[in-house]
């Protein structure tokens, strides 16, 4: 399991990295944490002729906040997010999801930008970003643009990123007052790829009715999906145990398109979806009640 | 002997751990030889195909490539690997030996079968060159499923045979048909146990070096059997045994597949090293390990048990298919283990057991920890559980009623065991073990609480299963014990060590006999230069057989010590004592000699050695038991099942084990813990998934799941000791016990947790997907 | 792996049939096909480059065979692909029938994979299969509509 030969560059600035990506086009791949790319290269599934290592571009590594948003540099390590007070206060759904991202050792290298750009349908962070209505800054030699998470994940390992673009920053709106978050997934062993997962972010209005019920789902389609049925059935209502269960079951029927593999059939995944959506909503609404 | 030196049954920490933990232990991949080249293999991508052509020209032309060989280049060296284990002399046994070639010729029979070897300056270049080799294969229909392989007209793995039956064996005792007529209940089911790997943390590796000046070949090999490898390779290469040295240094886990001998890589690498005059290294990567290293455990059983209405077993009939893979070098060891182990600790007078070993287009099958015993236990324990349900008898009670009593030993079952000797249980006392396990798991208490917990929505269940394990078989092992003039005691034995703690347990045995500190006993294993006679580490026999040889050699050295000391001190031998590395006079401890002094005196530079004596304080001894000894035990597990997700949480795991006299309880527990981890793997996670074209769909640790530290609960152990009469110390083996009954235990526990009589677990492993389907069906039915 | 489904083309059945039998169309519209030339009656050989996630431009030699033709409603397509990352063998049974909005195609296919993609890619196989099928069919539909817009019909 040795990779095919490749040329290696380790730029120190974002501009240099973008120049290299532009110069080499399809021959080049950006290296972030390497936790997905390097195994693919060692298996010789991926054989990029050029690697552009982003690990020395310090400007891409940051966690900062202002009054209304949390700003994360794309090269911020999972482990940093996991341990960050700013993240815990501004976007607790991220903190809740982090322990489920692979294993601690992997989290010391993996990055949020890598996870989002790779867009593995079983990844936790893309589903979390959907639930939090995050937006992503993409930079290229010709400038930069902002794409909301809802328009970013287009298909299996496919994002809105164009050739020559790098994901450089993630903006997450600060958690609202009267909001709660809950994350859960089922995997065969701790740290494995999820068989199914749900990331819930709920907000109650001043009148006590549910204002926002966003549930991001992972491992249940070729990309992360928002449980549209949940929002449709619960927003504007006072959710009860029964209405939560019904919303979860409805969503599991229509919002997802699970595949089968050797670990789980699509039927089993659909069952897990209904259970997990229900459990995260119950937990989130319950913690709102207690707050 | 003074209490502070009593090493037998002492919890001594391991001699070897400091080296292992500080990176000072040498493994085969650590071996560096100047000018060493690296090998990579071209392997078949198809499970069954004719080889049309292999074009190595482009590979040879690549910069950094030194040589490329395919079967056609091996000339006369291309002869089949040996049959390692001929079938035991069971009446009417049908057996077709078919073994592999060093590199495939004419036909490939499994994905991963080696077609060519590339030798280059680095493994990177070698892997690049592997892709340059143009292999033209004409695919044939493969056989993967056991029953499909035995169907009429199925494609034949070995075309010179009439079918894919590699062997047919029948073993019977008593008269099952008659017993069946008397039965009040017959329970009959089909059971599946699926294939798995051993997944040792260290993959295989070989370094071969031919020293042209000395005309000596050194092979570093992660083998469990260095001596047979040395002997076999010497013969094949036309060398004297003394010209070949095989070294198995520290090895990171064996579990069986490293006792498979004369793998294609083992055959080819030394040949290449001699031909090129440069050392060659091959380190198997993890992906290769899934094809190139042997696997085990695929079996299909149609079994029934006949019982009285009181739950007494009248007899068992079991017909099964055993997947031997593409070749069968290891003979019938595994399925015979299955046949024998099914009888368990029970009094079963009538038995009809038949199996067909089946060739399939999958990697070769040789023993993996448990070696077929799991299957026997799964069948008998599941049938007992199902019978208990139908008869309305408690699951533990039905076992009590069938256990062999302590007055029934030695117990001859009348069928043949894998070592070609009749299956005889040497000693055992099963009921107290069962009661202890039942007590430790809190069986009665849980029965009382279960209904209340279910009302709270918690599905908790318990499983209690019994097993026996044949261990410590021959043929023999040997050991040499030497007291050096420094006072350090050196022990050399022919077996290899893969982490079991031989550097400690053999030292304990010898330290006990000689009255020295265990840390002053240096053990050498796995080097044919050090010790040349023996077989290897397998079948839970290291302690019982090699340990007994160490014991015998130490006793002999003790005799020499006493004889010499008696002469020098003018005191009769029975007036002397060995203590703290000295020989001293009973009652007058100030009169004595250190062992170091004695060793010096035993090898005089002046003065002849008298006839009938030998210089030094050294002895070599061998031990070969007539037959194996029978260990036994009970596992009890408690699980909680989430009925919505079908995920199983293991709450508690109890093992009560009897491996006879324990040399070191700490290491016994280590073996049990490791075995249980393997058992949890067997039960829930480990399954090699082949599609119907023989392609392995989970050839990585991402998808072939092994339990990790978070998946294995703390294991509670207790011990019983019924010493074996077959060796002086009373030892029985314990290496595999942890994984043998786990599948059966968890199946019983999960059924108990679900509590629906329509819910039955008849196959291993129990993935959550399978449990979900079974639960869904049971709810409907 | 089994891939079954239906797809509705926006055009008449005869046009769809003609499209599916035309190697030039297949070469143009199937994702990643670099060339596809006739190598015999109803047989084609060519080269495909597939990109999925970290796998970029994995090259495959492809051989396509069309059999069991019942014009214009039924045929079987066999695709064998071989590359460094593995090999695949797919057999698809295709049935066409007219519907109000055009032509409904029912496909029932089994795909066998071998090599590295089988060994370490099983988690993604069904997803990749569905994605590639969807891309291929949508691309063919676009080609169909372009042809019809240009006034060409069954040729």
SSE layout:
The complex is a heterotrimer of chains A (291), B (781) and C (155).
Chain A: E1 7-9, H1 14-24, E2 28-31, H2 37-42, E3 50-53, E4 63-65, E5 69-73, H3 78-83, H4 85-90, H5 92-97, H6 104-107, H7 112-118, H8 124-131, E6 135-140, E7 143-148, E8 153-155, E9 158-159, E10 166-173, E11 179-186, E12 196-204, E13 210-218, E14 225-226, H9 228-234, H10 241-254, H11 266-290
Parallel strand pairs in A: 1-3, 2-3
Antiparallel strand pairs in A: 4-5, 5-10, 6-7, 6-10, 8-9, 11-12, 12-13, 13-14
Chain B: H1 17-21, E1 37-43, E2 49-55, H2 57-61, E3 65-70, E4 94-95, E5 107-108, E6 114-120, H3 123-130, E7 134-139, H4 146-149, E8 165-173, H5 176-181, E9 185-193, E10 205-211, E11 216-221, H6 226-237, E12 244-247, H7 264-276, E13 280-283, H8 286-292, E14 299-307, E15 313-325, H9 333-342, E16 350-359, H10 373-391, H11 395-400, E17 411-416, E18 422-425, H12 430-441, H13 443-455, E19 459-471, E20 477-483, E21 489-493, H14 502-514, E22 521-525, H15 542-569, E23 576-579, E24 582-585, E25 588-594, H16 595-601, E26 617-623, E27 629-641, E28 648-658, H17 665-685, E29 715-720, H18 742-754, E30 763-764, H19 768-780
Parallel strand pairs in B: 1-13, 9-30, 11-12, 15-16, 21-22, 28-29
Antiparallel strand pairs in B: 1-6, 2-5, 2-7, 3-6, 4-8, 8-16, 9-14, 10-11, 10-13, 14-15, 17-18, 19-27, 20-21, 20-26, 23-24, 24-25, 27-28
Chain C: E1 2-9, H1 13-21, H2 23-29, E2 33-40, E3 43-52, E4 55-70, E5 74-83, E6 86-99, E7 102-114, H3 116-120, H4 122-149
Antiparallel strand pairs in C: 1-7, 2-3, 3-4, 4-5, 5-6, 6-7
Helix pairs in contact in C: 1-4
Helix-strand pattern of chain A: EHEHEEEHHHHHHEEEEEEEEEHHH
Largest sheet features of chain C: 7 strands, antiparallel
Structural class of chain A: alpha+beta
Shape of chain C: globular
Percentage beta strand of chain A: 15-25%
**Number of spatially distinct domains of chain A:** 3
Strands of chain A, count = 14
Portion in strands of chain C: over 45%
Q: What is the string of SSEs of chain C from the N terminus onward?
A: EHHEEEEEEHH
How widely separated are the two ends of chain A?
A: 52 Å
Task: Give the second-level CATH assignment, the architecture of chain C.
Answer: 2-Layer Sandwich
Question: What is the name of the CATH superfamily of chain C?
Answer: START domain
- Report strand order across the widest sheet of chain C: 1-7-6-5-4-3-2
CATH class bucket of the largest domain in chain A: Alpha Beta
